[in-house]
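Field reference: sequence -> structure
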Amino acid sequence: MPWALHERIVEKKARYGRLRTGMSRKALGDLMGRMEAEFVYNSNKIEGSTLTRGETDLVLQGVTVGRRPLSGIISKSLDDIRAAGNHPGAMDLIRRLAFDASHRISEREIRSVHGLLMRGIVPDAGAYRTDDRAVRGAEFVPPPPYEVGPMMKKLADFVNCNPDELTPVELAAQAHYDLAWIHPFSDGNGRTARLVMNFILLRNGYPFTIVRDVERKTYLGALRRMDTEGDIEPFTTYVARCVEQTLDMFLQETGRPDLLPLGRLAGNTPYSAEYLGLLARKGRIDAVKKGKTWMSTRKIIAAYVAQQKGRTGTRPGRAKTRRR
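Structure field:
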């Protein structure tokens, strides 16, 4: 990942730790609850869930088809409702495993996470697939069923030992990719991979990191780059941006300076909003994505412009594009 992105994450993580320590238990619990609800909504939406953010909240609050049917929920797929309702149990297990620093995660526990996630949705929840699988839209063929168990054991050992001495974000990205490639389950592999990724991040002091549905195309595209080119860097950078954006959510809730759309911030620079957006996606500038809009601050953009002037001694790199 870009060094500037790594440095920002380290600095924001330190601020996150200090602010979290100073918050009341109730305030912290409320904030974490909202962030984790965002995780559940987005993780399921990526997989095609039809539930809205508000409907996801209702399910997480215990409003189920069997207990309190609501007109806005009852018409939705029962599997989508269960997928949302199953997440808290799986997330609690991930938290318990992550916060026990001496614990080594096992492939049996990864199966348990899957079992909690997919309970009532697939008949083989918590069990490895027993047939060959083709992944729709992917550029690879997952390994045959007889290789899944040994590969998952190696994955668990890799997560526990980190033999390549990767940073936590790099390790989380690699573990996510490896689990998605092994494709050990008949369904629910993406959801499970995002939770295993968060096991590593939580253990290393990060909040539950959200992969956003609005960036689904970028997310899947970065995974495919690894499939086709063997290049993990785009996916590592993407995961790092997700980590940074989640930290930004926390810091914004606790007093981050006002943010402005890049379209407004581009006005006093030599750059177009599109180019600043490209820099944001690559992690070159500190920016937050709200919905589909990238946002940053005047101070951050001014610092970037000054940095580019200092490097060239002239007008910075790429000017605003001219529309034809």
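Note: The chain has two domains: 3-253, 260-312.
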